[in-house]
Amino acid sequence: MPKAKATTPPTRSFNLQQLLASDAELSSGSTMLNLARFSRKRTADFLIIVENNKDWIPRSDYEQVVSASDYLGSDAAYAKPGTIVINLCRSYKYLSIGYYCSLLAEARSQQVIPSVKTVNDLSHKAIYSLDMSDLDYALNGIFSKNANQPLPVEFAMDIFFGMTDYTPLAQLAQQLFDIFPAPLIRVEFEHRSDWKIRSVKVQNISSLCAYQKEIFIQAFDTFHGKAWLQNYAGKKHRYNIAILHNPEELLPPSNNAALAKFVQVGRELGIDVTLVEKKHYSHIAEYDALFIRETTAINHHTYRFAKKAESEGLVVIDDPVSILRCTNKIYLADLMRVNGIATPRTYVLQESDIDDITELEQEIAYPMVMKIPDGAFSRGVSKVVNRHEFESTARELLKHSSLILIQEYLYTEFDWRIGVLNKQVIFASQYFMSTGHWQVAKRDADGKAEFGMSRAVSLDKVPPDLLAQAVRAANLIGDSLYGVDMKMTEKGPVVIEVNDNPNIDQGIEDGVLGDELYRMILQDFVRRLRVQHQQVTSSMPEIGAAA
């Protein structure tokens, strides 16, 4: 770890554990920063840090303005926890005076803008571009509604505390501020085939012209009237867990009653469980953990949520690696085969194979099951009984994927679903075939599904070899929460697939355990958070005294 340079004001020794304490607290849940929560009531002191006194634009006498050197060199004068700190230093580059001001403010449990995370994110386009896809989409929608206002192919917009003087983009400016809370941001737009955000950069107050300074003053006055709500000392909950769900999803992995159970049981455990949706993407860093209760896919916002949450240091279920592995049936089939897990006989088909399937027909008898690699809830799954159906169905499925899966058809009265969490079985369910159908879910032409009966089964009534095989299969993916779909055949247990996003429905999976099932899952989040916090605090070295 480098030492502070001679030009950095403080002369006393800093402890890196103190400087980075806020990061550790975010992981442990003792400090939660919510930039979206504002109040008209002034609940905290304001402090404005400038590198040069000439940089501050006098407007009123109630603001406390302090130089960066005084702020960094003071142990007590400017160290009141909960103070709202506006860092207006000329540079936030790594190890600059501005960087140290934000870092020390976080160590003092103050609410600083910009935070170290914001500074780091905006210094790496590869990081902040991950947050841009939804905003790019919104941007094109805005410009299409304002097509009568001609724009150049490139232009820039300044955002001061989430506000801009360009009215059509006022909402977008606030969204950008929610993602990257900084006093001054310059956003550059470009138009090629469509509009995109090319860059987002922090700006220097000393570079503003007279007109911009006037807008900045107005924006600051508005912002100052909305003191952030924050309570460091009296936090009611140990941890905050966000549950991502989609109220419009037809077949969600948890029904509304189950989601309510997670909230209720969480409250009993001292955990704040909050239901969030896709629109809350920019606020995910405010939580300690993310639990995805929406059907996952790679080219989907659920995967982006998992990636962002993981990069922010949250505990995540479903984690990105599990989503990546479980949502592709070809990967799963090969993983099981290589590791000696019994599965239906399987063949991977590409378009060039369709014209000659004689060898395949000799290996796998009709009926056969065809699957696209990333289907869910029986989507993209068909049963074929002869060559004609094979060829027509295969050609149709290959329009959606360059490879498809061919498997032998194994009929059983019901499928087993074994829930595995942290390499331990936590529940077992039986999913019966839909009436008059060969699958658990029968879909009509509109995509609506009719399910067969489902029931939870006490673990002591499940064949032990089936449970053991389920744990073996899940462990090949990771230590997260999985649902292993299996069939018990004459030759023994067979794994159909491993799901990263298993159903936890009130009235089905909790049929044996009741509230204990929700408690087990939430307590495992707590266990993971504690392990994470121990790892963070034990790895923090000392940093030497400033020269």
Notes on the protein architecture:
This protein is α/β, with parallel strands linked by helices. Among the domains are: 16-121; 125-212, no CATH class; 239-326 and 527-532, 3-Layer(aba) Sandwich (Rossmann fold); 345-408, Dna Ligase, domain 1 (2-Layer Sandwich). It is 31% helix and 22% strand. It is built from 17 helices and 24 strands. It has a five-stranded antiparallel sheet. Helix 4 links the parallel strand 4 (84-87) and strand 5. Pfam families: RimK (PF08443), RLAN (PF14401). Residues 333-526 form the ATP-grasp domain. InterPro entries: ATP-grasp, ATP-grasp_RimK-type, ATP_grasp_subdomain_1, RLAN_dom. GO terms for molecular function: ATP binding; metal ion binding; ribosomal S6-glutamic acid ligase activity.
Keywords:
17 helices; 547 residues; Rossmann fold; alpha/beta; 5-stranded antiparallel β-sheet; disordered N terminus; 4-stranded parallel β-sheet; disordered C terminus; 31% helix
Blueprint of the fold:
Layout: H1 16-19, H2 21-28, E1 38-39, E2 46-50, E3 65-67, H3 68-73, E4 84-87, H4 97-107, E5 111-113, H5 116-122, H6 125-128, H7 133-145, E6 154-160, H8 170-179, E7 184-191, E8 195-202, H9 210-224, E9 227-228, E10 239-244, H10 256-268, E11 271-276, E12 289-292, H11 301-311, E13 315-317, H12 320-326, H13 329-338, E14 346-349, H14 358-363, E15 368-371, E16 381-384, H15 387-397, E17 404-408, E18 414-421, E19 424-432, E20 441-443, E21 449-451, E22 454-456, H16 464-475, E23 481-489, E24 492-499, H17 515-538
Parallel strand pairs: 2-3, 2-4, 4-5, 10-11, 10-12, 12-13
Antiparallel strand pairs: 1-9, 6-7, 7-8, 14-17, 15-16, 15-17, 18-19, 18-23, 19-22, 20-21, 23-24
Helix pairs in contact: 2-17, 10-17
